Amino acid sequence: MNGNGSGEVKTPATPSSVAGGRPVYATASTLFTPDPSVGHLLYTMRKVGPKVPPEVVEAAEDIDQDEAEEDYEFLEQLLQSRELNALVKAHNVILFCNQEQCPCVSNACQITADVMEDIRPFALMMEECRELYALLSAPHVRNLLASHDIVAQRDYMPKLSEVPIEVDEDEETIKIVQLVKSSDPTGQHKSSEPIVGATIKAEEETGRILIARVMHGGAADRSGLISVGDEVIEVNGVNVEGQTPNDVLKILQMAENTITFKLIPNMNKPLIRESRVRLRALFDYDPVGDKYIPCKEAGLSFHKGDILHIVSQDDPYWWQARREQDRNMRAGLIPSRALQERRIVHERNELNGDTANLTSDKAEDNEEFDREEIPTYEEVARLFPRPGVFRPIVLIGPPGVGRNELKRRLMALESERYKATIPHTSRASRPGEIHGKDYFFDTREQMEIDIAAGKFIEHGEYRANLYGTSVDGIRDFVLAGYQPIISPHYQALKMLRTPELKPYIINIKAPPFERLKETRHRAYARSTFDETSSRSFTDDEFDTMIKAGEKIERLYAHWFDMVIENEDLNSAFEQLVKAVRRLDQDAQWVPVSWVQ
User: Fold this and answer.
1) Are residues 182 and 284 in the same domain?
2) Smallest Cα–Cα separation from 218: which of 186, 266, 176?
């Protein structure tokens, strides 16, 4: 009897009836069948028993018979436990599921031909035979069976010919490498793989054909047999001495399945380590239209905003990269930051009649530019959301585009979370206004000191009074657990985009002119250009709004985290809410300094 008087009797698991030689163990509540391997082990244990043979005891003086019996009982109970048997069964299922599933036969076409020959005499007499014969004769069925046999026989890989081993003892150390010609593209074009994942060049002094670079993830890189600096002696049995890289490229292009290289290895090959740098592209790039890229087929195209994993920065002009989401793709060539900056300066100089070569020392010596004005790449890292810590939402856009209405709706949606910053002013307070709620009322002298100290993200003067939005006000809201919503002038972005504030910048963009005009008139939108009267927007104001938006994009598009086209206010607000809520759930790519 147990303590609560229920009358339940607890008994250890004991073997019950034996069916087909397999023990069934009974507990107080259920029966279960042990795994066969565990059952055999138990059977063997019981046959041997817990007693230690005398000759073993004599040979080992430290054996305790009582301890041996305790160990036996413990092991017996463990092997009878439901948990262990369930674990063993799960292990066996996993092993079975991970076994390679192979076709039952590899000659389905021959079997089909035999069946057709057997049923041919009956096809005229029996409808079923005639239907089966017609089915097996169908071209798509025959092609399907042929494909099955190719896969079953593993006949889909090209055959590598035997590598000759006879080498003249007087020759230099050479290596012979055979590679399967790759067809894996890096971009949209089927022919964009540089054949074996490597590029070649001619040495200026000697004209020797050398391996210029090995693309990470390509066939040459995966083989581990081709290195930068290796000299190419032969390609598919053709001596390439005295030939140009274009001649060698033609030989490679004519190869069908495999390519055999005879190489003199580079004994001073550098140790190449894959970089962990991630960059956000701040411009669009298409290698097809790039006249400077050494191998167009090796180039990697990308769009503004793409995250690139830079795997090699060994070359000062051409980096190797792959898109962050395409982890299995081989790397491609992209222009380095220095080359892209120089390219832009070069294009500007061409307009002024200066045609210095893009990669010449003269171009490097003469270039003078502000890197912030030439957006190329930005090093980024993932910023993970933290509960209760919100990033300020910055709404950028031209006057009249609808930023303030979107801001008002967002604050009304969840007023305890979204807060508008409280401005500072040097004017005197009016009746009913509260310091710290409506405005921060400061003296003009104090505001001028703070402006000079860079404590305001934006400021201005209206009717002889100063107004401004302070950095401290935004920071205080974030520390208090609120999410500030800011709609400043676009020039304030330089003050806002800092590691301390980590803002999420959304550009509110106007739709094309006709749609802008149609949607604003349909919604009876009032002009924000005239504070003295309530009237509709004019065509000139629509045009001014669009041009102002284009200017903002031209100057600061590389800082935008998102762009919302405000064609319909409800749709734009829905996009805004989804974007803000996504910040609470998903990691975002931000400048690496914000994470460090």
Assistant:
1) no
2) 186
